[in-house]
Amino acid sequence: MTGVAIEYSGTGDPARSLALLWRTREKPSRRGGDLSVERIVRAAIEVADADGLAALSMRRVAERLGVGTMSLYTHVPGKGELLDVMLDTVYGETARPQDARGGWRGRLEQIARENWALYLRHPWLLQVATTRPPLGPNVTAKYEYELRAVDGIGLTDLEMDAVVTLVSGYVHGAVRGAVEAAQAAQRTGMTDEQWWHAHAPYLEKVMDPRRFPLAARIGTAAGQEYQAASDPDRAFEFGLARILDGIEVLVAGRQAGGPPAGGLARAVTDG
């Protein structure tokens, strides 16, 4: 299930979490095959990737590593701190090319698609509420890179932060449909296209186009085009383009010398 956050980042002890994230107190291994933070975190990510965040526990990670549960606590204080390091680790996977084409718009497109791909690789990210993010090196580097995409184009510091937040928040919401479609196909053994072809003939018989003229006309056109009830990839591309169009209105206004006008949301909606 992807609809409800079942874990919260930032719940661990602040001092221990930051020490773990930045590796300031990691204990050296006595032998080459001993446990390390990296091995524990990778095992935890593998568990979450395979079975979801609900399956993650210190015991489950220990079983995957073939060690006793208590041995993990020598390196990781608890599950809260472990989750923060898992998040920081996977956030380090996003590509950060320095030569993305297309100016600020091309850079934001690249960032959005990298984040989209990250969620598809690790669907459990949608099950973590990150309003209190893990303040680790990879999270910080990712934020720095994303801010750089809109640096020097006339926005205020707060507007730069708002633009990055807007794009990342859009991806977080839009990718849910793609993740759920993939999970539905995996768990039912039926693709969206197969599901649609099984249901469409019966829907035509029961839906009265006189009662639902718009739903009948537009739903039929969309179903024929998508061969499914929806197309998350196409919806993502459409929405991303509209988000960037709105940001372009804001950027053009700033470059024309306009003052801040009450926040990014107003500029986007008014544009």
TrEMBL record:
Residues within the DNA-binding region(s): 57-76
GO biological process, one term: negative regulation of DNA-templated transcription
Keyword ATP-binding among UniProt keywords: no
SUPFAM superfamilies named in the record: Homeodomain-like, Tetracyclin repressor-like, C-terminal domain
Keyword DNA-binding found: yes
Residues in HTH tetR-type domain copies: 34-94
GO molecular function per UniProt: DNA-binding transcription factor activity; transcription cis-regulatory region binding
InterPro entries the UniProt entry points to: Homeodomain-like_sf, HTH-type_TetR-like_transc_reg, HTH_TetR, Repressor_TetR_C, Tet_transcr_reg_TetR-rel_C_sf
Keywords attached to this entry: DNA-binding, Transcription, Transcription regulation
Protein name: Transcriptional regulator, TetR family
Organism listed in the record: Micromonospora rhizosphaerae
